[in-house]
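Researcher: Go.
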Amino acid sequence: MTQMMSINNDQTNLLRQVFKNQSVPEEKKERAIETILYEELSRVNNELVNMQRELAKKNNELIGLNKVKNQFLGMAAHDLRNPLGVIMNLSEIILDEEDQLSEESISFLKKIDYLANFMLNMVTELLDISSIEAGSMTLNKTNFDIVTLIRDSVSLNKPLADKKS
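Model: Structure:
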C-alpha cells in the first residue's frame, strides 16, 4: 500500500483497473489491458504534443527576445561610441600641447587615450556580437604578444594597487 501511494494518481488508477479486471475471463482481461494501455499511450502522446507546442512557443519567444537583445546592444554600443570619441579627441588635443604639460599629466593623458581606445574596441566587439549571431562575420586572426598585454594591464592597474597597498 505504501508503494502504491508513492506512484502518481494516473498510474495508481491504471493499476486499480488492471487488478479489477483480473476477476474477468482471460480474453476480456487481455482486451481490457490493451484498452487501458492504448488509453494511457494516447494520453501520454497528447501530453507530448502539448509539450511540443509549448516548446515551439517558447522558442519563438526566445527568438524575439534575442532580436530585442541585439537591438539593445546595437543602440547601447552606438550611444557609447560618441562620448568615447570625444574623450579620445580631447586627450589628443591636450597631448598636442605636451610641451606645456608635466610628465605626470602626459602619462595620465596617454592612459586616458589608451583606455578610451580600449573601451572603443570593446564597444566594437559588442556590435560584432549581432554579426556573429547572424553568421555574417568573418574572423581575422592575428598574432599578438601576450606579455605586452599583461604588462599594459599591470601598468594601468598599478596606481590603484599602490593606493590600496
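Model: Residues 1-5 have pLDDT under 50 and may be disordered.
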